[in-house]
Amino acid sequence: MPISHQRLALGFSWPHALLALVVFAMEVVIATQLPHVSWIRAYLGDVLVVILIYAAARSVLRIHDHVLLLAVFVFACCIEFAQYFRLAELLGFVRGDVMYTVIGNTFSWGDIVCYAIGCIAMALVVSGKNALVPA
To answer: Which InterPro entries would you find in this protein's record (predicted)?
Structure first.
């Protein structure tokens, strides 16, 4: 069925839920054990966060993988542009607030490149898996 005619459905996927948990654990390790290795936190963390969002969403949504990856990329870019406009501060959050940390406070084109790399990497994995598994 063409992507444009596919309907959104709910259904639980253990493999995607497990992937989300593993990537979340990796993000926690990066944030808590490797804060002094700035390139890992800054770049690898951004690549992994879109994979985490994809896997978490895909664990409960039955939607075409590439459509979901595009939505995840757009969502990540929206958060990044919210940082450009200092949305967290405009909403009254201060450094140390959970939402200040979630929204972030520093815009970077490099972050957007990392989000793209993460989404493209996941798309390649999904395409490779689909090529190996007959429909």
So the answer is: DUF2809
How many CA atoms are closer than 13 Å to the CA of 115, on its beta-carbon side?
Answer: 22
Interatomic CA distance for residues 57 and 52, integer angstroms = 9
- Six-digit token pair at 82? 């919210």
Q: What pTM was estimated for this model as a whole?
A: 0.85
DSSP character string of 15-65: HHHHHHHHHHHHHHHHHHH-TT-HHIIIIIHHHHHHHHHHHHHHTTEE--H
Q: For 106-126, what is each residue's pLDDT tens digit?
A: 899 999 999 999 999 999 999
By three-state DSSP, how is residue 75 classified? helix
